[in-house]
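Dear all,

This email documents one entry for the complex benchmark we are building for the journal club exercise. For each entry we list the sequence lines for every component of the assembly. Then comes the predicted three-dimensional structure of the complex as a C-alpha cell string, followed by one or two observations. Please use this as the template for your own entries, and keep the labels exactly as they appear.
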Amino acid sequence: MKINQFGIIETTFEQKITELTAIGFYDAPIKLAAQQGPITLFAALMKQAATITAVTTEFSDYMVNENQNLADFLTTCTTLTMQEFDSVALQLLQFTENVDYTLAEPMKGVQALGLPLANIPGVWSTNDLLSAWYDLLTTHTKNGLQFIDFLASHGYFKTTNESLFFNGKAMVTFDTKSLKKEVVYVETDLDTDDDGIKDLVRVDIIRPTTNQLVPVLFTASPYYQGTNDAISDQKMHKVNVPLERKRPNHVTYDEIAYQAAPTNVLTSHEKNGETSVATKTFYPTAHVDLNNYFLSRGFAVVYSSGVGTRDSDGMQDTGSPEQVASMQAVVEWLAGNRRAFTDKTSGITIKAVWSNGKVAMTGKSYLGTLATAVATTGVAGLETVISEAAISDWYQYYRDNGLTIAPGGFPGEDMDVLAELVYSRMQDAGDWHRTKAQWHQKQVQTAQEMDRVGGNYNAYWDARNYLKNVPNVKADVIMVQGLNDWNVKPRQVFRLYQKLQELNIVKKLYLHQGQHIYINNNRSLDFSDQMNLWLSYKLYDVNNQAQTQLPDITWQNNQQPDTWQTKASWGQTTPTAISLANVQTPVSYTDQQTKQAYATYSKDYQTWRSLMMNREKHDLDHARIMFLQPKQAQDLLIDGEVSLQLRMKSSANVGLVSAMLVDYGIERRLTNKPVPQGEQIDRGKNWQPTSLVEFELAQATPFKMITIGHINMQNRENSWRVNDLRPQEYVDLTLTLQPTLYQLTAGHQLGVVIYGTDFEMTVRGNQNITYTIDTKHSQLLVPIVTLADAKD
Amino acid sequence: MKINQFGIIETTFEQKITELTAIGFYDAPIKLAAQQGPITLFAALMKQAATITAVTTEFSDYMVNENQNLADFLTTCTTLTMQEFDSVALQLLQFTENVDYTLAEPMKGVQALGLPLANIPGVWSTNDLLSAWYDLLTTHTKNGLQFIDFLASHGYFKTTNESLFFNGKAMVTFDTKSLKKEVVYVETDLDTDDDGIKDLVRVDIIRPTTNQLVPVLFTASPYYQGTNDAISDQKMHKVNVPLERKRPNHVTYDEIAYQAAPTNVLTSHEKNGETSVATKTFYPTAHVDLNNYFLSRGFAVVYSSGVGTRDSDGMQDTGSPEQVASMQAVVEWLAGNRRAFTDKTSGITIKAVWSNGKVAMTGKSYLGTLATAVATTGVAGLETVISEAAISDWYQYYRDNGLTIAPGGFPGEDMDVLAELVYSRMQDAGDWHRTKAQWHQKQVQTAQEMDRVGGNYNAYWDARNYLKNVPNVKADVIMVQGLNDWNVKPRQVFRLYQKLQELNIVKKLYLHQGQHIYINNNRSLDFSDQMNLWLSYKLYDVNNQAQTQLPDITWQNNQQPDTWQTKASWGQTTPTAISLANVQTPVSYTDQQTKQAYATYSKDYQTWRSLMMNREKHDLDHARIMFLQPKQAQDLLIDGEVSLQLRMKSSANVGLVSAMLVDYGIERRLTNKPVPQGEQIDRGKNWQPTSLVEFELAQATPFKMITIGHINMQNRENSWRVNDLRPQEYVDLTLTLQPTLYQLTAGHQLGVVIYGTDFEMTVRGNQNITYTIDTKHSQLLVPIVTLADAKD
C-alpha cells in the first residue's frame, strides 16, 4: 500500500499554531499541558484524539513500541522521539501492524506507505510535537481521509455553518441535515423550440443554511432529469453495414466552418414581481460524488440538464452551441448576470442572493464535456472547471478521420441516439405528446446533419468542436483522463491540453490508468484534498498557493500499483522512426470473415479484440498484419502520439485502416476499474458516504493494448476532404493513434497490429477487401523516452 | 418487466377509508370534492399526489388517453373509467409509455407488469375511485417502491415520531436526522478468556427519538467491528496437498456427541450505580441494508460482534456455543432479562428502557447463521429471525461427507481462518499485545479440533451443528437462500427447513436464483414490503395476517426473468431412478493432471469447472465420466435432493468422489448476481438510499451446473465413521448432491459429471488414482415433477 498526497501545503510553525488554535487543537488545557513538557502534551493531544476517534479511549490500547503501551509509557518515560510518535500515529491512522508496519521499525512503515508525517530526529520538544501533530492531522488514514477529516466525520467540528480552513482546505463545519433544496427556472436567450419565447431551463440547488455567501459547484448534466434508456436503445444504429465509397471532393475548411445563425428577436417572460425565497423544492439523491464532498464544507451544489430536458423548455441537440449556451446561462444567473423565475408561469423573479458569484463546473463524460464547453465561452463568474473524461470535440467522439467510429463499448451509438436518451421531456406524458412531432422532426434533421454514412467533418461537427473556441477560455482548467478510457478517448484531453498551453491560465492534468471512471475516491491519491485546496483557492480566495502546489501533470504509473508521479509535459517527445521493412514486402491481409466467425464476433467483440492481439495462430490471422519489435533492453516511456506512416492499397475503391499498439510480455497489470476496498468513507459527517476503491494488479496477461486508431483511406488528407481511392493503387497515409503515456517494461516487446474492420468501433461490412502494405515505404513513429530521461 | 407483490393485504372498503383518513389522503377538502363526484375527487387526489411527486404539477403533463391530457379531461368529461385511471396511474408510477405500456391499452400494460391496481369495470363511483386510489398507494413504482413509500420519500409524511401503519405496514414517520447512537456493554455468563470474570460484549444501538417503545432489529455480526483481511489471508491453508488415508474406526455418534463443559463460578462486574442515559456514542455507516429500511419506520437497529471482537472481552471461536450465547445475551438485555453497563469500568448499569422487548434477528451469511443459532436457544424476546444464506451446520460449510470442502470461491478457508478474520481485538495494538499469546494458543486448539486433515464429524463440529437444537426454536423463522449460492450451499437451509416442519411455528422460505446475495432491493419482488408486513405483525402486534398472507415458499423461476412463484413444499418429491447402464460397463477415469494443467487449473478453477462440464474433447477428458440423458420432451422440475448410488472402486487405498448435475442446452439464463438498474431508491426520506437491482438474462450459454456434491470413499457410512478402502475393491456408496429447485427446459438434456478432485472445493492431491464405476450397479436418483404437476 502507498499513499500519494500532493494536496498538503508547507506551513510555518507560527502558522501551524494559529491553525491548530483555530480548529481547537491548541486550546487552554493543551497550552497548559504544553508548559509541562512533551509527555504531558502528548497525553493531552492523545486524549482528545482518542476520545473522538477510537473504539476505546484507553491509552493501554495503543503501543508505543513492541513492549510498552501508551499508558505505561506516559507514566514512566520523560522523553518522546519520532519512533514512539510514529508508532502511535500509525495506529491512529488505522494502519495494520505486521501488514503495513512493524512496531520495531515504525518509521520504515511510514516511509514505505509514503506518509507525510514529520521527520524530526532526536528527542522532541513540545514545539516538535505540536508541529508533528499538525502534520499528522493532514496525513491520510488507511481509509482515504486526512486524519482531520476522519476526526470531522466522527463529530470533531461543531456545525457553525461558517467556513474554517485548515492547511488551505475547507473543513466540515456546515450542517448537512438542514441543506436547502430549491428549484429555479433560468431564462436563456435561446429559442430552441421555435415558439418565439425565450427558453426556460430548470436549475436544482442544494446549499447549506448559512449567513455567509457561498460559491457554487455547478454540474451541467443532461442525464440529471432522467434518461430514456429503452427508447434510446431502440434508436441504436445498425453497424453490420458496408463501408460506402464517397464521392471525392475538394472541400476546404472555410467552406464547412460553422457560422452561427442570426438570432431572432425573442419574447422575454413577463415579470410580475420578485422574491428571494424559492417556492419549489426537490428530492435529490447523490449525483456527483465529488460535489457531495463539498456540501459540508461551505459550497453550494447546482445541477441543470439544460434545454430539451424534463421541466425545461426547448429541444435536445447533443453538444450544440445552444445546449452549451443554456448551461452558460445558469452560470450567469449564479454570478448575478441573468434572471430566473420561481416557476414557469408566475413571472416572479428570484436572484441567487446566497451566492458569492464564483462558480466551478464539475463532472465526468457528458458532464465534463459541457463544463469544458462553457469554459470556452469565457463566461464571467466561471472561475474554474474540473472536467473529467470530457469530450473537447464531438467529431472525435462519434467519428474519426472520415469514419463513423463508436465510443468503446457502444457500437451503433451516435449524436441522435444520445439526444434521444436525454430528451427527458418524454417522461411527462403530456409534455411528450405536445412536443413529439417537433422532436421527431428535430431528430430527422440531426440524423441528416451528423451524416453517419459519410463520416466527414462538416459544419454540424464544427459547431460542436470546442477546441476552436479555446482562445476564449478565462477559467482555470483541471483535467482528468483515463489512459485506458476507450469511451471518451485520450485524444479529447490531449488536444485540449495542447491548446490551453497557449493561454495564460492555470491548467492541471491528471492521467490515470482507469477507463471511464471518477478518481475522487481512490485510496492511493488525495484527489479530493487537492480539489479542496484548489476550490478553496479559486472560490474562497484562500491564499494557499494551490496554483503552484498542485503538480502540472500527475500520472499514474501503469507498472507499479499505488504510484502517482508528477510530470512537466506530455507529448513533447520527438518520435523515433521504426522501420516495418524487416517483414518481407509487400504484405497483405483480407478483411472478410466466414459467415460464422462474422456472426460470432459481431456479438462478442471482446473476444475478437483479444484474438486480434493474440500472437498464436487462429481463425482471425488472415485479417491482420502484426509487426513485432525485439525485446526491450530497458524500461521506456511512450510519451504522446504514436503514428503509422503507411504506403498501402485496397483491392476495392473503399478502404479503412485500423491499428493497435500492443505491449507483449507476460505480466500482472493494473485493473482498469478500481476495486472496492470494502470501506465506506464518510467525508462529511454522515453525509453521503462513498466506497473507497483502488486499482489493483490483476492476474498476469500476455499482452495489453496500449492505444488504437482508425482512418478512412478516402480521408487521408483530412477529415472533410474526400480523396479518390482506386483499387490496387498505392496511396500514402498517416494514421495517428490516440495519445498515451505508457511505461513499457524491459523484456517486453512493442507490437503493432494493422487490420480493417474493428468489431467494436467501426462499421462491419464484412466486405471482401484485401489490403496490401508496402512495408519498405512504411514506418512506425513512436515518441520514446528512456526511463532515466523520463523522470522529471 | 414484471413486478411481483405478495405483501399487500386485502382490505375492506371501510377499512380503506379509515386508513386513507389516517394517512391524510381523505381529509376535509377531499371529502368535499368526493361529494361533487368522481371527476372532482380525481382532481383533488391528483393535486395532492402531483404536488408531492412530480417534476411538474401541471395536469396538462399527464395523458388520460392518446389524445387528451388530464387538464382537458377534467374540464370536459363527467365520468371516469378504469382506462383513464390506469393511464394516469402508470404515469404516477413512473412507467414508460411505449416501453412498459401504451395509452391505447393501459390495462394490458397493468396486466403484463403484474400491477395490483383495482380492476373495476364500467363507470366509476367516488367509492370506486377511493378504493382504487388506496390500491394505487400500495402498488409498486417502476423503481421498487410502493407508491405510498415513494410519496414518503418525497416528504409526504410529517415526522411525528409515532407509528403509523398503512395496509398493515409501518410507514416512514420517524426522523432519521435525530437518530440516537449509543454503545452499551452487555454482561454475559461466559468466560471465554479464562480470567474468571464474566465477558462483556459491546452493543451498538441506533434508534429513533420517540416517546413510544420500539422493537429491535438485531444483527449479530462478527464482521461489524472490523476485519483483519491481510492477516487472515496469510492463514489460508494449502489445498495443493494429497488426500490422506484415514485409519478405519467404529466410532458411533454417541461417542462424538458434544457435551457442554460444566461452567465455573464466575465473578460478576461490580455495580456502582444505574442510569438510563448511555455515555458512549459511535459513528455508523450503513451496515445491513434491510435494517436501514426500518429505521425511519419506528424500529431500533442493534449490532453486536460478540465475544472476541474489538472492544469486547473474550476469545473468538467460530460458531461456538459461547459465541452464540454472547449474542443470546444481547437479546436478553434487549428483552429486559440481563444487565449491561455504560462502559467497561465504571460499574454503571443501563437498561434498554426504550425497547418494547420484542426482537427480530436479521442478516446474511455469518450474520444469518448467528440469527439461526440464537433462535435454536429458544431465548425469550426473540420473536422472529430473518436469516439469509445462513449456515445451520458448520460441518456442512467447511466439511462434507468426511472431506475438507471449501465454500465456493474460498479454497483454503477454514474455521481458524475465519476466526482470525474477525478477531478484531487485533486492531487495538495494546489490546492485541495483551491477548496475543492466549489468542495464538486458542488458534492452535481450534486447528487441532477442527481436524482439517481428517475431515470427520466430531464433537467440535457437533457443538457447531445448530440443527440438533431446532426443537428449542420458539421464534418464527424467515429463510432466504440462493439456489446458485455455492458459498453457503442450499443444503444449509434445506435441512433447517425440514427440521422446522416438525415445530408449531411460522416458517417461510424464499429461494432465489442468486449466489451469495441479499434480495431486499430487487425490482421484481416486494421483499422489503413483505418483511415490513411481517415485522409489523411480529414486533408491533399489527393484526395484518402476515402469517397467512406471506407465501410459505416463494421460488424465483430460473427460466423466466422477473418471475416469482409460490409453492407449498420443497423436496417432498419421490425420486425417479435413472440407470447409468447405457454406458459400456465398467467405466474409468483418472484423477491426475499433467504438471502444466495442474498448475494452470490450480490458479484458475473457473476455467477448470467450465471445461469439466464442456462436452467437447479437451485435456481434462480423462479425469471425468459424463452420463447424458436424452433430450427432455417437456419442461420438468427437479425438486429437492438428487443423489447418486454408485458401485465403484479406487486404484488406491484412498478416494474421493465429486459430481455435478448439469443442464445442457443453449439458452439465455439468468445472471446469478442481480444487475444494478441505475437507480438509487430512497426508502426512508433520504435515509440510506440503496441501489435498485434485478436478475437479467445473460448471453446464451451451452450448459449450467444445477448442483454439486462430494464424498470421501472412506466415509460411505456417515461422516464420523471411517470405513476401510482397499485398492481395486468395489464399494457401494450414496452421494447426495446439494438440494435444488430447478426447471429444466424441454429440449434440454440432463447430465451428470463424475470426477475426483474439485479444483475449487476439495484438496488437490494430483494423485495418480484411477476410479472405476460399475455402471450396471449404479444409478442416478432425481426427484422429478412434470411441470403441470409442479404448479401449486
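Observations: Chain A has 23 helices and 32 strands. The radius of gyration of chain A is 29 Å.
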